[in-house]
Design goal:
This protein is an alpha/beta fold and about 260 residues long. The chain contains nine helices and nine strands. The strands form two sheets. The protein has a seven-stranded parallel β-sheet, with helices on both faces. The chain has a two-stranded parallel sheet with strand order 7-8.
Length: about 260
């Protein structure tokens, strides 16, 4: 299990303008690392740059846009050896099955899966250049613990995170021969602008700052799987290991009634 972040690293992080991404960025700045920060909104990125102007470069982009990302590829090349890419940008939209819309599925998949895959497309060449010089290179994909259990209303979000988990683990197998580590991060509920919109109880909720410390600590220790909080993720893993018929009954009993059913 290799150590990471022992020395100053060059790191690209997406979704840096808010939530987990912003908190991870702040933690890495405190660790004296050099960062390229990406998000759709310029102002929050500029605010992060003021924390360490000489060590933070901003690269605003929509990670689902190939054009935006191509402009970042040149930035990555000029930044020096890229030691780590933390692909954190994502979204969460829930589905009301009484008013089923495939658009909800598409939005989750497009941002969370396609956007991440497009980021890998420009991160990999930079990481390979770093490995060619004998330096460590790590690809970090931030998913969710939601993929361990079929929650109601999460058809799009959960499917996108399940896809990310498979994507990360397959990449880990393919890139092992090149010496590029692939890390999958599976957080539980984290208090962010996205989860602030949730209208249901969120057990074992942690702050974005707490999540960032857990992620950075796991990376520093060389973990390839980072899941937290442990009590919540172990519960989900145990539930997901039950017979499918029991999982189906539990999931159905937990599913919220649709708005039309609640009104009758």
């Amino acid at each position: 299990m290799s150590k990471r972040l022992d020395t100053v690293s060059n790191i690209w992080i997406t979704g840096a303008s808010s939530g987990i991404g912003e908190s991870v960025t702040r933690a890495l700045i405190r660790g004296r690392h050099r960062l390229i920060v990406t998000g759709r909104r310029v102002e929050p990125l500029d605010q992060l740059k003021t924390l360490a102007p000489e060590r933070v470069a901003t690269a605003a982009a929509d990670t689902t846009s190939k054009g935006d990302l191509q402009s970042i590829a040149a930035t990555l090349e000029s930044f020096g050896e890229l030691n780590m890419a933390i692909l954190n940008a994502g979204t969460c939209e829930y589905l009301d099955v009484a008013h089923y819309s495939s658009d909800v599925i598409e939005k989750n998949i497009h941002t969370n899966v396609v956007g991440t895959a497009r980021c890998v497309e420009i991160a990999l060449p930079a990481l390979r250049r770093t490995r060619a010089k004998g330096q460590p290179a790590t690809l970090v994909i931030v998913g969710s613990s939601a993929w361990w259990f079929p929650f109601g209303r999460a058809e799009g979000y959960g499917a996108s995170k399940a896809a990310l988990a498979y994507f990360a683990q397959s990449l880990r197998a393919d890139l092992a021969a090149e010496g590029i580590d692939v890390v999958l991060v599976s957080p539980g509920f984290v208090k962010t602008p996205l989860t602030d919109r949730n209208d249901f109880p969120m057990p074992f909720l942690v702050t974005a700052e707490d999540a960032a410390e857990r992620i950075v600590s796991g990376l520093a220790k060389g973990h390839n799987e980072i899941a937290f909080p442990k009590r919540f993720t172990w519960i989900l893993k145990c539930l997901g290991a039950l017979p499918q018929s029991l999982i189906d009954r539990m999931a159905a009993s937990m599913a919220r009634k649709s708005s039309s059913e609640q009104d009758t």
